[in-house]
Amino acid sequence: MKTIKLYDEMPYSTDFKATVIEVNKNQIILDQTLFFPEEGGQECDLGTINDIPVKDVQIKDDVIIHYVKKHHLQVGDTIEGHIDWKRRYSFMQNHTGEHLLSGIVHSMYGYDNVSFHLNSEEGQVEYDGDIKDIDLIEEKVNQAIYENKEVHCFYPDDLESISYRSKKEIEGKVRIVEIKDYDICACCAPHVKRTGELGVFKIIKVIHTTRGTRFIFLFGERAYHRFKDDFDHLESLYHLFSSNNQTLVKQVNKMYEEKTALEVKYAQLEKEHMLSLCDHAYLFVEDCLPVNQREVTNHLVHVYGTGGVFVGNDEKGYRYVIGSANNALDILTQLKSLRSKGGGSKEMIQGFTPASKTELLKALS
What's the pLDDT score for residue 329? Predict the structure, then answer.
């Protein structure tokens, strides 16, 4: 028996009644449900059945399975279900938005949507081609939102007469989602009634892949909260730098350049100080930059034939870099006898040792 999908006709409803037709431990099957299962790249609805939290919803052969924890439900029981509306509406906004985005990308480039995933944080969609006009795409999608186009979801009587997008072959009845002038696509998920409900759209990351281009995006309330967080952070930075939106980037770039110059100067001074301490093949210091550890090791090898730098102390142990003009792997064998870990080549080894300075110098002498 197929589950009646109440969400097809009533995507804005949050409460429903149904009859339990099968119970298998923590799996509950109802004759009808408002719970959208994990399907089409989208995570499932959450909510309750008789105040029992629904943890997961899956679909198999048109039968929708509700996963709960502790329960006393039995076949024949009449239940009251409740959908987490905040989660449902967020998914409706972002899934409808993906249709709008993909329809516009397809009209601009002819590219197909080859991957889609929508979770509670963000949406991801990948297209089979290289996309660079990100600002233009965002502008077009937001313009379509402002136009407040109708979103029409239906099961057509004559599917063959309709040209529509689909990510995969579909068996059985095909549900079509149409946004006039922008997109027509096969889809099983709940959607909003009009594009104006999408609010606002933002691509927050672009990833160029071997297959094409992947967008990470936000619509509606998710986009609003991202904008608000970013605005609050910027306001804090404006205050911190006594700046505004015209001068902040310039000031940060200047600070970055100064920081980079100081780091270079510090590295050089640290290296000079370490070299001044090199009166033995092995140098022990509390801390230093990794690049200086290697460069000073190379200096010690040049002077002594074998040498290395140990960074740390007897209490916490030492990370080491040791080089040799002969075979550093022989030294690694000695260090491992002191419970040390590491690896490398004949020229240079590195790793960590818990041994004390006294134990190390004795083993290396």
Answer: 96
> pTM to 2 decimals?
0.79
Bridge partners, residue 79, by sequence: 18
Q: Which token pair is 310?
A: 């140990």
pLDDT at 259: 97
Distance of CA 199 to the CA centre of its chain: 23
Report how far residue 150's alpha carbon sits from residue 146's, in angstroms, rounded to the nearest whole number. Answer: 12
Query: Please, what is the end-to-end C-alpha distance for the chain in angstroms?
Result: 80
* 235 phi, psi to nearest 5 deg: -60, -40
Are 176 and 291 members of one domain?
no
Domain-located, residue 250: no
Looking at residue 318, its pLDDT comes to 98
Residues 181 and 296 in one domain: no
Residue 286 lies in domain: 267-364
Question: How far apart are alpha carbons 17 and 153 in whole angstroms?
Answer: 23
Q: What is the mean pLDDT of each run of 10 residues along the chain (365 residues)?
A: 94 98 97 97 97 97 95 96 98 98 96 95 96 96 98 89 75 88 94 98 97 97 97 95 93 96 98 96 98 98 97 98 96 95 96 97 92
What's the CATH code of the domain at 78?
A: 2.40.30.130
What is residue 171's predicted lDDT score, i.e. its pLDDT? 64
Closest CA to 106 of 93, 123, 125, 91: 125
Note the residue count of the chain: 365
Q: How far is the C-alpha of 138 from the C-alpha of 229, rounded, in Å? A: 20
**Into how many domains does the chain fold?**
3
- For the domain that residue 205 is a member of, what is the CATH number? 3.30.980.10
To the nearest 5 percent, what fractions of the chain are helix, strand and coil? 35, 30, 30
Per-residue burial over 223-243, b = 16 or more CB atoms within 10 Å of its CB, e = otherwise: beeeeeeeeeeeeeeeeeeeb
